[in-house]
Amino acid sequence: EEGDVLFMLEQYDDVLTVADLQEILGIGRNMAYSLLQSGAIAGFRIGQKKWRIPKTAVLDFLKNARFSKTF
């Protein structure tokens, strides 16, 4: 399963957009922003509106979520 996630993520840039995050996790926009604003997924803002998410932050989130069963 982890290999599948890594393979899927190879097609994305090292820094992701919110739309990329939604696609990868299969979630809606509100959930994506909620995860970013809560710090569950580490991201950073460009200006006041645009979020960018390091691919490694998504991998960390997925590893943690798998062990904690919170996602």
Description:
Helix 2 crosses helix 3. The protein is 56% helix and 14% strand. The chain has 4 helices and 3 strands. It is an alpha+beta fold and 71 residues long. A 3-stranded antiparallel sheet has the order 1-3-2.
What is the element string, with H for helices and E for strands?
Answer: HEHHEEH
3D shape? globular
User: Which strand order do you get reading across the main beta sheet?
Assistant: 1-3-2
Q: What structural class results from the helix and strand content? A: alpha+beta
User: Based on DSSP secondary structure assignment, what is the total number of beta strands?
Assistant: 3
Low-confidence stretches: none
Q: Over the alpha carbons, how many angstroms does the gyration radius reach? A: 12 Å
Question: Percent of residues in helical segments?
Answer: 55-70%
Beginning-to-end CA distance, first to last residue: 15 Å
Helical segment count: 4
Average pLDDT over all residues:
89
Strand content: 5-15%
The largest pleated sheet is described as: 3 strands, antiparallel
Topology:
Layout: H1 2-9, E1 15-16, H2 18-25, H3 29-38, E2 44-46, E3 50-54, H4 55-68
Antiparallel strand pairs: 1-3, 2-3
Helix pairs in contact: 2-3
